[in-house]
Amino acid sequence: LSDEELAFILTNSAMHQVFGHSLRIEGRMQWLWTLASDYAINSLLINNGLEAPLDINYDMRFDDMSAEAIYATLENEID
């Protein structure tokens, strides 16, 4: 990984803590909540100019959406 990509990964990890994602799960499916919160953070980081590594969880349709809203969208798509 480049220094920029490593910075992206470390920032992603820190942001999960900053946003309290582990505290906001509220009975949701763990794997889907993790995916939704990762989409939310990665969108924020990419839209703020950080260089993302290849093959991360990112979809521009989730730009400006909260992890809760992304979770609901993903949950509807798997039903």
Description:
By secondary structure, the chain is mainly alpha-helical. 58% of the residues lie in helices and 0% in strands. It contains three helices and no strands. Helix 1 (3-18) packs across helix 2. The longest helix is centred in the middle third of the chain and has 18 residues, at 30-47. The termini are far apart. The relative contact order is 0.19.
Oligomer: single chain
Average of per-residue pLDDT values: 95
The proportion of residues in beta strands is under 5%
Q: Report the principal-axis shape.
A: globular
Q: What is the string of helix and strand elements?
A: HHH
E-strand count:
0
Class by SSE composition = mainly alpha
Euclidean distance between termini CA atoms:
36 Å
Which segments are poorly predicted (pLDDT under 50) over 5 or more consecutive residues? none
The number of distinct helices, counting runs of at least 4 residues, comes to 3
Helix content: 55-70%
In this structure, how is the largest beta sheet organized?
Answer: none
- In angstroms, what is the radius of gyration? 12 Å
